[in-house]
Amino acid sequence: ADELGLDLDQFGDDYNSGTVKAKVRRDAGEARALQLTGTPSFILNGERIQAPSSVNAFADLIQAAIDNAPAPTGEPQEVHEHADLAVYINGEQIDFSGDKYQSTDDESLHDYTHFHDNIGHIIHKHLTGVSIGDLFDSVGVSFSKACMVLDSGESYCNTNTKSLKFFVNGAEHPACHNYEINDLDQMLISYGPTEEPAVEAQLASVTDE
Q1: Are 130 and 162 in contact (CB under 8 A)?
Q2: Which residues are registered as beta bridge partners of 142?
Q3: 194 burial level (CB within 10 Å; 0-12, 13-18, 19+)
């Protein structure tokens, strides 16, 4: 760091920062959930691919993905929508009402989706196309089909006995990170035993505000 001319005080603060360490733990947990064993690893449209043999081979893969992509649906539109959310990990509900998860007039964690007023179960959305993943990314939480990694770095990934489930309006939904928040949605994320009898009670606990 000294040879590179970095600010050594800043370097030391960042090296020992709990926030930085939590981000590293989140990234490592997500890598484990995706079964990544080394670098570089490549994900294309959510699927792991073998390292291409050349830049041209990589370009061909990306172009094929572009060619097969659905046509854009138009420019994003401003909206003012709301949805209700509950997240349970091993039967315990996660509380998103704390200041670190909240956007304020002075500090917005995301331009188009957020929690605010210390209410952690109502999502605000201000632009079409915004997903539940956008919301979680803004508060330092990673959410995929395989794994949820909290801002503390704790990871909860699918195993033989436990699984992560995502419900929208009472029905299990296959999309996760990319699911677009819709007005009046009631969403539940639940991690626990694969056959979890408590899910019905968790679904009933999702507010309708």
Answers
A1: no
A2: 149
A3: exposed
Q: Which residues pair with 164 in a beta bridge?
A: 191
Question: How is residue 21 annotated by DSSP?
Answer: H
> Count of residues for the chain?
209
- With a cut of 80, say whether residue 78 has pLDDT above it: yes
34-68 pLDDT, tens digit per residue, is: 778 888 888 888 778 888 899 999 999 999 988 88
What's the rounded Cα separation, in Å, for the pair 197 and 209?
25
| pLDDT, tens digit, 9 for 90 and up, residues 160-180 | 889 899 999 999 988 788 899
pTM above 0.90, yes or no: no
Six token digits for residue 62: 């990306």
Angstrom distance (rounded) from CA 130 to CA 113: 7
Alpha carbon distance 206, 189 (integer Å): 10
Which value, in Å, is the radius of gyration of the alpha carbons in the chain? 19
Q: What is the mean pLDDT of the chain?
A: 90
